[in-house]
Design brief:
Glutaredoxin, 2 domains, 4 strands, 9% strand
Length: 215
């Protein structure tokens, strides 16, 4: 069974959703027969390479809310993430364009599904837990080295935007599937689950999708 997950590497709910889905998959009796494929989605395709304003100021401006309210929302999400074993400090994250990060994931998948998944996790960790600037080339190349991708190959692929069309294809497919926000989980192209749902909700979806395929 194929599970495709559209998400962004700067989406705090996406990392939460990943952990919750992984918890559900770990107890799914057919987990060994489930292939997970990470798909590209940019929350802000117009983002600069590095966002100069802090996350709270960015949210306040984007959603037209007081800065104190934005700061409070970030703290609440930090606390929620801590419950999933993810020590966020969202106010300290260094946002920016994720276009090249998604290309790096596609480069990894060109070698193997395992490397693609490892690269996705490494990018999320770099941004949310290590507070690295996710749009910087240096960050991306260090992530590449960490997961076993040749940094020279990665540098050339990113400079050439070799996997840019693959990123755009993922995003176009997301729109065609009705995905307007992430995380967005599609199970065997038969069932969709939107948002960072509970492990129980994901477990139910896995069982339903498996049943639909005659499992």
């Amino acid at each position: 069974m194929l599970v495709e997950i559209w998400s962004d590497v700067v989406c705090p709910w996406c990392y939460l959703g990943k952990r919750r889905f992984e918890a559900a998959l770990a107890r799914f009796e057919h987990a060994g027969e489930v292939e997970v494929r990470w798909r590209s989605f940019e929350l802000d395709p117009t983002a600069p390479e590095r966002r100069e304003t802090g996350m709270a100021a960015h949210l306040a401006e984007k959603y037209q809310m007081p800065l104190a309210e934005a700061e409070g929302r970030l703290r609440q999400l930090d606390e929620l993430a801590a419950g999933e074993g993810l020590p966020y400090d969202l106010a300290a994250t260094k946002g920016g364009s994720t276009y090249r990060a998604h290309q790096l994931i596609h480069l990894a998948y060109a070698s193997s599904a395992e490397l693609g998944a490892a690269t996705k996790e490494a990018l999320l960790r770099a941004y949310f837990l290590e507070l690295r600037p996710i749009g910087d080339l240096a960050t991306l190349l260090e992530v590449a080295v960490g997961v076993g991708i040749d940094p020279d190959e990665a540098a050339v692929a990113l400079a050439e935007e070799r996997f840019g069309p693959a990123v755009r294809a993922d995003e176009q497919e997301a729109a065609a599937l009705g995905c307007s926000g992430v995380p967005f989980f599609v199970l065997d192209r038969a069932l969709a689950v939107s948002g960072a749902q509970s492990p129980d909700t994901f477990a139910a979806a896995l069982h339903e999708a498996w049943a639909r395929r005659g499992g």
